[in-house]
């Protein structure tokens, strides 16, 4: 496994979770990381991207104001902080990279290396 998402679980509506993305292969200092989710019966949705090339981050309008992404280079981790969670946030969450050193945020189709997902369930 080259990327591993963790931190999912069951949370009540309005609650928070922090997902982590770790890598045994990639030094995440050098790779752009995106977060995605896929709910049953729905297409995969891109949520965020944190760019190596310029340090910028992108959050999808669908979760803007509730989700943020950050990187801890010392820990070789990328995080997705999720607040004010709603039942419609229930999905399997994945982190991914395009595998290109020093890239910016690519189109979703260019994310070629995917981690195992982590289930997030928002329910009372």
Q: What share of the residues lie within helices?
A: under 10%
Please tally the helical runs, counting DSSP H or I stretches of 4 or more residues. 0
Distance N terminus to C terminus? 33 Å
- Please provide the count of β strands: 11
Q: What do the pLDDT scores average to?
A: 93
Strand content: over 45%
Low-pLDDT stretches: none
Structural class label: mainly beta
What is the rounded Rg? 13 Å
| Major pleated sheet | 7 strands, mixed
Which of globular, elongated, flat, extended, rod-shaped describes the shape?
A: globular
Helix-strand sequence = EEEEEEEEEEE
Folded structure, characterized:
With 124 residues, the chain is an all-beta fold. It has no helices and eleven strands. The strands form two sheets. Strands 2, 4, 5, 6, 9, 10 and 11 form a seven-stranded mixed β-sheet that branches. A hairpin with a 6-residue loop joins strand 5 and strand 6. The radius of gyration is 13 Å and the shape is globular. The model has no long low-confidence stretch (mean pLDDT 93).
């Amino acid at each position: 496994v080259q990327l591993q998402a963790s931190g999912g679980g069951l949370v009540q509506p309005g609650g928070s979770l922090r997902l982590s993305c770790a890598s045994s292969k990639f030094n995440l200092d050098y790779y752009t990381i995106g977060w995605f989710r896929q709910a049953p019966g729905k297409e995969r949705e891109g949520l965020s991207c944190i760019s190596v090339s310029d340090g910028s981050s992108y959050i999808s309008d669908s979760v803007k104001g509730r989700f943020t992404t950050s990187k801890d280079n010392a820990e070789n981790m990328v995080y997705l902080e999720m607040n004010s969670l709603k039942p419609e946030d229930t999905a399997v969450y994945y982190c991914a990279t395009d595998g290109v050193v020093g890239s910016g945020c690519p189109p979703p189709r260019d994310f070629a290396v995917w981690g195992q997902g982590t289930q997030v369930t928002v329910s009372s």
